[in-house]
Design a protein that fits this description.
Largest sheet: 6 strands, mixed
Radius of gyration: 25 Å
Helix content: 25-40%
Strand content: 15-25%
Number of strands: 23
Strand order of the largest sheet: 3-17-18-19-21-20
Distance between the termini: 73 Å
Number of helices: 14
Structural class: alpha/beta
Length: about 525
């Protein structure tokens, strides 16, 4: 059988067809391989294609090229894309299709100032992502006949199930969002309806429970009131498990159509430089002479072994906004540029990423925030070629590692808006991390507490979970290694906490606490 016949028959066997240009491309890619290798690669191609959100069974050359690139046949990673700073406004929007059980790219053109439909879609998208993840969990998925599993199974009910009951029923488990539809009264809401809750005697599991959080509520429905006995978050899901189910779809962003984790070349590059470090600082007040002096000590310490990246998070000026504020900020960045110029090894080999803080100039107090205006940064970018001014939040791809950076005093806001503050011995960072990874969102606060652009809410999603989440917060520094494999880091306030910072090693998965004396 000829190579062309093998290719065409293999795809037909799985209900797929190839356009002529796609067939020609595969013939070129597989030319010269032995019969066994051809069979191996065709099997790989089919498995990869079946995990993709296809719109048609007739495959074009673009689709086949993406699959061949993902599987690594005759392709190599682009060194220029090994390190990427991904703007929040360019993060791809993927919507979960309940019919096809896949994530599909949403190519719609949305205005940054959305309509009321966009606000509703924001919560629907959050609900759909979390529901499909929870429903696939071993505690809630349907048992497989003959599996012999002894794991107890729980059945999830929609809110409309409670509303339809005409008689008292035992404990029910409902998945929905906490909402305060009447002042002082909490409701559980999903896409089918809402029901009033009584949480006066509820047992709260680990986490910081606020309005607009999605929860699993267990209790008894009686007299049009859901008496909740236990309230917990939906279980988070390790990134590897999510990707095994949805394939190598690029949720993270960047020029590639496939996830960076599918690249063997990127993994090889990481292994060749296992000590590559990210140095993370927050509240870098450039108008303070003391801060610049400490940065000089920091740069001197790293001069012999330059890190891969310095991440500087705002706010970048200590004084409140006023007549002298803007000039002080410009002068601060110029002073930093001059300081970096005194260290040629850092200037040539280290990248600098700047993330705006809450007091930095920008278009209002809504997230995501765009990068700092060029009027403040052009002096530094002209002197430091490897400097990048990012949005807040932003995403960083370092080889095969995915890193999310968010500058927000999220701990204080979550605690202030909690339905009930934790009273157990678990520390607050653990509660915060449990909340964020369970909600798969960087900021699950009510929109009136922390406004979000409705059409850009997907840029705050944490699904699948990245390798590292940097929460630049003025709260005390912490590092939490989650059981999901994701690490959450807060470097603390550099200017307020005796010049503390964090050094992260992406390949090793290690984080070091550091301080400048």
């Amino acid at each position: 059988m000829s190579l062309r016949s093998k290719i065409v028959s293999t795809f037909k066997l799985h209900g797929l067809s190839l356009r002529s240009e796609a067939t020609a491309y595969l013939l070129e890619a597989l030319d010269g391989l032995s019969g066994g290798d051809v069979k191996h690669w065709l099997t790989r191609f089919i498995e990869t294609i079946q995990k993709k959100p296809l719109k048609s069974g007739a495959l074009s050359r673009d689709v086949i090229e993406a699959v061949v690139e993902e599987c690594g046949v005759g392709t190599s990673a682009d060194d220029n894309n090994a390190f990427l700073v991904i703007d929040a406004f360019s993060v791809p929007k993927l919507s979960y299709s309940t019919d096809r059980k896949k994530f599909l790219v949403d190519d719609g053109k949305y205005s940054i100032h959305g309509s009321s439909e966009d606000k509703a879609r924001l919560f629907c998208d959050r609900y759909t992502v979390l529901y499909q993840r929870t429903h696939r969990h071993e505690l809630f998925s349907n048992p497989v006949l003959g599996s012999g599993t002894s794991v107890a199974k729980y059945q999830l009910h929609p809110v409309e199930y409670l509303l339809s009951l005409s008689s008292l029923l035992g404990n029910c488990l409902v998945f929905g969002m906490i909402a305060q539809l009447k002042e002082g009264t909490y409701f559980l809401e999903d896409s089918t309806g809402s029901v009033e809750m009584d949480i006066s005697t509820s047992e709260f599991h680990t986490g910081l429970f606020t309005e607009n959080c999605f929860v699993l509520a267990e209790g008894v429905y009686e007299d049009k009131l859901f008496h909740v006995t236990a309230l917990g978050f939906p279980p988070p899901e390790p990134s590897a498990y999510s990707r095994s189910y949805f394939g190598n779809v690029n949720f993270f962003g960047g020029p590639s159509t496939v996830s960076c984790k599918a690249s063997a070349q990127y993994e090889k590059m990481e292994k060749e430089n296992p000590d590559a470090a990210l140095v993370v600082l927050s509240d870098v007040w450039l108008d303070q002479v003391t801060t610049l002096d400490k940065l000089k000590v920091l740069f001197t310490g790293f001069m012999e072994a330059p890190p891969a990246v310095f991440v500087f998070c705002g706010s970048f000026c200590s004084m409140p906004s006023g007549p002298k504020y803007y000039q002080a900020l410009k002068d601060g960045f110029k002073a930093l540029a001059d300081l970096i110029g005194d260290y040629p090894t850092l200037l040539e080999r280290t990248r600098f990423v700047f993330v705006p803080g809450p007091a930095d100039p920008g278009p209002g107090n809504v997230i995501p925030r765009p990068p700092l205006p060029e009027v403040f940064t052009q002096q530094l970018t002209s002197q430091v070629p490897l400097a990048s001014f990012a949005s807040n939040p932003c995403r960083v791809q370092y080889c095969s590692k995915e890193i999310v950076i968010f500058r927000e005093d999220i701990m204080n806001k979550m605690c202030r808006n909690c339905i009930r503050l934790p009273s157990d011995d678990v520390d607050l960072p653990t509660h915060l991390v449990k909340t964020l990874e369970s909600q798969a969102h960087l900021c699950p606060l009510p929109l009136h507490v922390r406004p979000v652009y409705w059409t850009k809410d997907h840029a705050l999603h944490l699904y699948p979970l990245p390798d590292l989440v940097i929460l630049a917060d003025k709260f005390d520094p912490f590092t939490v290694n989650s059981q999901t494999g994701c690490t959450f880091v807060n470097p603390g306030s550099f200017a307020r906490s005796d010049f503390q910072f964090k050094v992260c090693f992406p390949f090793k998965g290690e984080v070091q606490d550091s301080k400048i004396p």
